[in-house]
Amino acid sequence: QVQLVESGGGLVQPGGSLRLSCAASGRIFTITNMKWYRQAPGKQRELVATITRGGNTNYADSVKDRFTISRDNAKNTMYLQMNSLKPEDTAVYLCNVHNLRPPFEYDYWGQGTQVTVSS
Length: 119
Hints:
There is one protein chain. By secondary structure, the chain is an all-beta fold. It contains no helices and eleven strands. The strands form two sheets. Strands 2, 4, 5, 6, 9, 10 and 11 form a seven-stranded mixed beta sheet that branches. Strands 1-3-8-7 form a four-stranded antiparallel beta sheet, with no helix packed on it. The radius of gyration is 14 Å and the shape is elongated. The protein starts with a strand and ends with a strand. The mean pLDDT is 96.
């Protein structure tokens, strides 16, 4: 089993910044893709950003140029730097990792961290 611990959420004013972290521990083989999702009340879960083991990144259009995903493979940790936050960014942010032990790849989720953008 792999445990994921997220941190860094909170209340911030519009235009502010937050940095989320997601640390993986436990029975780790090779963590390949790492992803941040978010879910707002009454809305579907949305993929926010993806980073491959090699550092290639992808973002949802709604966060491009405002959010930056990064990772530290030595620490099995992923980050999401969120700048210029808007009220519509308010959601529970969840991390997701893929743990590869060929030929299988296992999917793990964090418990989520609340981000609230409000004045």
